[in-house]
Amino acid sequence: MIQQKGNFKDVIVFGFALFAMFFGAGNLIFPPYLGIITGPEWLTAFGGFTFADAGLALLAVMATAKYDGDVIALFRRAGGKLAIVLGCADILCIGPFLAIPRTGATTYEMGIMPLLGDAIPIAVFAAIFFILTYILTIKPSKVVDIVGRVLTPALLIALAVIIVKGVISPLGPIVEEPMIQGVVGEGIAQGYQTMDAFAAIALASVLIVSLNEKGYNTVSDKLKAIMKSGVLACVGLALVYGGLCFLGATVSTMYGVDAQQSQVIVNITEGLLGQTGKVILAVCVALACLTTSIGLTSATGQFFEKLSGGKLKYKTVVLAVCIFSACMASIGVGGIIKVASPVLSIVYPPTIVLVILAFFTEKIQNDNVYKFAVYTSLIVSILTVIQSYGVAMPFLDYLPLKEFGFNWVVPVLIAGVIGHFVPGKNSELENA
Question: Which residues cross the membrane (predicted)?
């Protein structure tokens, strides 16, 4: 039986680990730009951003924890084959095809190049970065402790230095009017684009392994621990996002809506702290990316070991992921996004649909609710990606919430209702 003191300590460590795993370089880039374009209404925009980012991520962690970290089980009511395909697509996107190599490439472009230029080739840096990821990931039960006890405090200290300095000595006045319409909507749209809910599904499995090691034996105990840790992580994310949004607002007279997002935070930090600021920012980026890389690499290893019934060993998968990610990182952030982002855009909406439905699984008696809703989101997503390549699909422009990236929501709601009235089975009850 876990003692109360142990519970509190675990919540702190797990909360810090979740914070760091969610907080990648993208989370460092989006909020300052959001502050610039929303100006005096930065606080409102930050609320929308935090809801769509940290809020959805917390829901995803909780939903996956209900299934003891088993991604396939989370997806199964939409159909066994689709669950495997969607689960693999999710893990590969937030794993070696996009998110993991992007951590190495982003660290190089935002952390190393501002200090050293191209003195160190990206291929050499990527090799070093992913060797370090491999070393820190090879023992899955230790991942949360390494991230939560060591790396997150260092990340928080570095972020605090930048934010506190910017609050005490703002770089400039805030513009009188926002540069855009729909401040809340813009915050939600940018928070959604971080796709942290995607990563949260995989990261839940990492937490489950550590919780098992620490003696949390029941799903109920795990859910309580993850809920408390998740709230702590979300509070931490909200404080950091708020600070970064404010920093962006203080330079809103210096930039416009065409500001280069990745360069804004570099310039702000240099303006606040000079050359020292570049070093501190490099530390922030490196820690943010390394913690995310460790968490996602571990999650990928656990997923494929479980999916293969142990035929693919955790250490083998982790090694393969690190080697592949080092190669992918060498093509740079822009190249990685071009290769993988269309797939990411397709599989993200059905993943969110299944996460939300997971909280109602005991009340939904008909699997066709899942199937109709998920396949509809998949179809809308595929058509939206095709449209982005210049293929005319004017009917998509009439879908509600298109401007926020949620054009699939209303069709999904309608499809789910229709599915409710189409006779089908309840595999959840049959498999219980």
Answer: 12-30, 42-61, 82-100, 120-138, 150-172, 192-211, 231-251, 279-304, 316-337, 343-360, 372-392, 404-422
CB 280 within 8 A of CB 158: yes
Tokens 């009511």 belong to residue: 77
State the total domains in the chain.
2
Contact yes or no for 92/299 (Cβ under 8 A): no
3-class state of residue 343 by DSSP: helix
CA distances from 296 to 136, 163, 240 (A): 12, 27, 22
298 and 364 both lie in a single domain: no
Domain at 83, CATH number: 1.20.1740.10
- 12 and 98 inside one domain: yes
**Residue 255 Ramachandran class (φ > 0 left, ψ -120 to 50 alpha, else beta):** beta
Are residue 272 and residue 419 in the same domain, yes or no? Answer: no
Q: Are residues 314 and 364 in the same domain?
A: no
Mark whether 278 and 401 lie in a shared domain. Answer: no
Using CA atoms, how far apart are residues 420 and 375, in angstroms rounded to an integer?
14
Distances (CA, A) of 70 to 74, 112, 195, 203, 265: 6, 37, 20, 11, 37
Cβ neighbours around 216 below 10 Å, total: 21
* Cβ-contact 24, 94 below 8 angstroms: no
What residue numbers bound the domain in which 37 lies? 4-333
Instruction: Report the run of H or E that residue 160 belongs to, with start and end.
Output: helix 152-168
- CA 404, chain centre distance (Å): 17
Chain centre to alpha carbon of residue 143: 17
Do 224 and 373 share a domain, yes or no? no
Looking at residue 164, its pLDDT comes to 93
Specify if 346 maps to a domain: no
**233 close to 387: Cβ distance less than 8 angstroms:** no
Q: What percent of the chain has pLDDT over 70?
A: 93
- Read off the pLDDT of residues 316-332 as tens digits, 9 standing for 90 and up: 999 999 999 999 888 87
pLDDT in tens, 176-230: 888 988 888 888 878 877 778 877 887 787 788 778 777 787 778 888 888 888 8
The SS3 assignment for 404 reads helix
Domain final position from 298, 333, 368: 333
The ranges of the chain with pLDDT < 50 are: 1-6, 428-432
Q: Which of 297, 314, 333 is the last residue of a domain?
A: 333
* Same structural domain, 64 and 113: yes
The answer to whether residues 260 and 399 belong to one domain is no
Cα–Cα dist 381/417, whole Å: 19
C-alpha dihedral sign at 234, 236, 237, 242: positive
